[in-house]
Amino acid sequence: MRRNSTQTSGLGSDILKRVRSHDGISRVELARDLGLAPSTAGIYVERLISEGFLVETESESRDAGRPPRLLRPNPDGGEFIGVDFESRNIMAVAVDFSDKPLRNAHRSIDPSDSVSLILQKLEEAIAEVLPRNPNRLLAIGVGVPGIVDASRGVAVHYKYIAQWKDVPLVAQLNARFNVPVFLENNARTMALAELWFGQGRGLSDFICLGIRSGIGAGIVLNGRLQCGSKCGAGELGRWRAFEPGAPELQEIASARAIRETLRKLAGGRKKTVLRAGPNGISFADVVVAAQQRDGLTLQTLGHAAELLGHAIGQMTLLLDPGKIILAGPLSQLGDLFLDPVRGAAAKAVSAAGIAAPEITNSTMGEFSGALGAAALALHEWKPAQPVETPPAPRRSRAKARV
User: Fold this and answer.
1) What are the φ and ψ backbone dihedral angles of 184, each rounded to 5 degrees?
2) Helix, strand, coil proportions of the chain in percent (round to 5)?
3) pLDDT for position 115
4) In what order do the strands lie in the sheet with 154-157?
5) Which terminal residue of the chain, N or C, has fewer Cβ atoms less than 10 Å from its own Cβ?
6) Within a 10 A sphere around the Cβ of 283, how many other Cβ atoms?
7) How much is the pLDDT for 285?
């Protein structure tokens, strides 16, 4: 592998993406899909096989005649790391060249942590999931909370980490690990995880709501992730609660806000089964109290669900998504939280005479954003281009997805 070359093969990357999008594809199908002459496709495929990125095996088809040989990603072709964080947690995961998760790591962020200490913990989490052979690491993807400038590799601003402003994440991580680093908002990496592995797979239009310390929307339209003109699309949590001067939505309906509200109410000796410990109230405590039908907990959750459902209704009127996927701690509540969200969303769109989209919980777990960040790195990474390049493609009519 010539990974230190500054030249990269865009066509080689397109071939890898096309192979990944199929459960095995023949050379003939690959050339047809990408609009290539079979000889050109064959040259690139042979190079990718020789470099260890693709394998070619016989199909298990039982049809008469010789079964076709199919191309697939070689799991041993290298590894990618994805890291996802918000104000309290850092999650990192390593995947092989075929997207299979290999190792994961977690670090906690304390409210008093400085930006430099958070970056140190970020590097530690990545280091924990590194392959034994560092040459196997091909790229790193990072899901960052708040506003990001992916073109400059800078985390611009995040409300819930003090002094988090214009942090040059890509430059720092690139210097530390010496591989390409790709940056994206963490709600969008959650959407990528759903698009490639989860409940958004096969869908062209859906929204993933990442609800943790804040609330962000990863928006997929026509099969493509939407970032906006200034990388600010999806900042749903900053919406005011539908009237000037009202609190932001994430100050009422995020997992953090729900815990904080219940902590204050329980401390005020309201009747509840909740008891705040030295570290406050965990979301696991909230789940248990809701399952026990604690009145104060259900009332707080109901208010949050109503506002979130109304926000979903407004997004539906604007974008008409086919599905809304809720990711984060609130998914632990199941239909107990989803049902009032669905009801509020349906009410918000009823006057327009349209139906609310399907609203469901993510099933990918707490590492979904990290998996999405790893997939981002995997899809953005390009194999190095040799000095003597194969002939140019005859034509190209296919567009790769995100």
Assistant:
1) -155, 155
2) 40, 20, 40
3) 96
4) 147-149, 154-157, 165-167
5) N
6) 18
7) 93
Amino acid 65 reads G
Q: 277, 334, 99, 301: which is closest to 196 by C-alpha?
A: 99
Domains annotated for the chain, with CATH where assigned, are 10-53 (1.10.10), 77-192+367-380 (3.30.420.40), 201-361 (3.30.420.40)
- Please name every residue paired with 358 in a beta bridge, in sequence order, or none if there are none: 323
Backbone angles phi, psi at 308, to 5 degrees: -65, -40
134 by DSSP, 3-state: which? helix
Q: What is the pLDDT of residue 243?
A: 66
CA distance linking residue 272 with residue 293, whole number of Å? 10
Mean pLDDT per block of 10 residues along the chain (402 residues) reads 41 90 89 91 93 87 67 95 95 95 96 95 97 94 95 94 95 96 95 91 94 95 90 90 80 95 83 80 93 95 96 95 96 96 96 93 92 92 68 46 44
Q: How many CB atoms are closer than 10 A to CB 97? A: 22
Token pair 């949590």 is found at 237
Query: Angle at the Cα of 140 (from 138 to 142), degrees rounded to 5?
Result: 165
Instruction: Classify residue 329 by its DSSP letter.
Output: G
Beta strand 101-108 with 154-157: parallel, antiparallel or unpaired?
A: unpaired
DSSP 162: T
For tokens 């010496």, the residue is: 178
Please, which contacts does 64-72 make with residues 24 or more away whose CB atoms are closer than 8 Å?
Answer: 68/26, 68/28, 69/26, 69/27, 70/24, 70/25, 70/26, 71/19, 71/24, 71/25, 71/26, 71/27, 71/30, 71/45, 72/19, 72/23, 72/24, 72/98
What is the enclosing helix (H) or strand (E) of 71?
A: strand 69-73
What pLDDT is recorded for position 271?
83
Distance, CA of 29 to CA of 32 (rounded, Å): 5
- SS3 string, 72-109, reads EECHHHCEEEEEEECCCEEEEEEEECCCCEEEEEEEEC
DSSP 17-49: HHHHTTTSB-HHHHHHHHT--HHHHHHHHHHHH
Which pair of structure tokens corresponds to residue 376?
Answer: 């981002």
Length of the chain: 402
